[in-house]
Amino acid sequence: MQETIQILSEADAIVARQRGREIARTLGFSIVDQTRIAISISELARNIILYAGTGEVLITDLVAGYDDIGIEVIAADNGPGISDLNLALVDGYSTSNGLGMGLPGTKRLMDEFSIDTTPGVGTRITIRKWLHSRHF
Amino acid sequence: MDHFKSLRTIVADRESIVTEWMAQLAAERHELHELLGSEYIRQQSETLLIEFPRLTVPGTASPDRERDSYEGVSRWLQNISLRTAQHGGSPHTFMPYLLRLKAIISERVKDHPEMTMQDLYDGLTALDRVFDRINHLYYDFYLNRREQVIKAQALAIQELSAPVIQVWNGILALPLIGAIDTQRAKGIMENLLREVVRTKSPHVIIDITGVPIVDTGVAERLIKTVEAARLVGAECVMTGIRPEVAQTLVMLGVNLGDIVTKATLQAGLSYILQRIRQGEQEAAFADTKILEESVS
């Protein structure tokens, strides 16, 4: 199962998070986890629109070991990149006059979180949530 | 050279083509046949064949001429596709009906007695051109209609989206449903502030039972709405935060600290009524005190 959603407008962010939620439900995630995944996708997709204008969200299911499955979301854009990664992950820090909770909040909602960013080239954020959260 | 000549000769035999066409549709119990009735389909099919020779006039290569000669067919397509849609049919029921005619005509082109290879080739090419064009027109029209419907629905949803309800004297309720994007949030806030001022209501209940996802963006918009309402003199109570929404909000680290929240709309309403009663009692108490002081 793999799905790519082009993010061109806010409406696409809604589509992306709905698909993410559906896939999470199919994989057997609880309602709270489904909501965590949907919100995380929403945060990342909104960041794409806010900072890069356009980009894409890639949702994939994962298998680990014998009995664990998970969901991976990659949010990629060719935007301006994040100039100070440490600051971007501080609660309340925002360059767009927002709440500044999107990235640090998403990190807390997920099991795995990584950012690959180059100023002027783009940003690629990968997040994962496991059904049995013991992979770190 | 008139590539369409053989086509025109063949299509002139309207009666026999329609009869064959209808017989085939009836034999396979074609969906459109069942949907719109055989008599109606027969009439429409005849109309199309009457229009058909106009499509096969040479020189239709010029865009203006082409538009003119396809005018009748466009109208015909609009009528029948609209009717199909009204009866719940899709393009998948319409196109096979039309392509059946193409099959019948190409069969006749092939069997035409005075056909050289060149004539056959020209005839079939011309037939392709005509049907490609009809196909194109049909889908254009169909997609246009679909887009109109989608736009109308989007507008309808936006209008429905944020009704402000006066539930009690001085108490407004704002039940929010669905996804809240920037555009909607703006409309919701404007609507609410206007109603607060118009009805002079000091209390507002914002109910988010119908909002499935509260991310930091939505939270921020809600907080701003509450702040703006406060500036025009109304105090907001937020109700209907679902358990999973509450959990994720805490994890996100969003602080709704200053906003009074209650589990349900009912709890929110009784909280406000209690506050109003308290206020009245305090006011009455203050009045008595002033009265006592002035007497003594």
TrEMBL record, chain A:
Highest taxon above the source species: Bacteria
All residue ranges annotated as the Histidine kinase/HSP90-like ATPase domain in the record: 32-133
CDD domains: HATPase_RsbT-like (cd16934)
Name under which the protein is recorded: Anti-sigma regulatory factor
Organism in which the protein naturally occurs: Tumebacillus lacus
UniProtKB/TrEMBL annotation, chain B:
Alphabetical list of SUPFAM superfamilies matching this protein: SpoIIaa-like
Record-annotated STAS domain positions: 161-272
This protein's record includes keyword Lipid metabolism: no
Coiled coil ranges: none
Keyword list, A-Z: Phosphoprotein
Record has Phosphoprotein as a keyword: yes
InterPro entries, per the entry: Bact_StressResp_Reg (IPR051932), STAS_dom (IPR002645), STAS_dom_sf (IPR036513)
Highest taxon, organism lineage: Bacteria
Name of the protein described by the UniProt record: STAS domain-containing protein
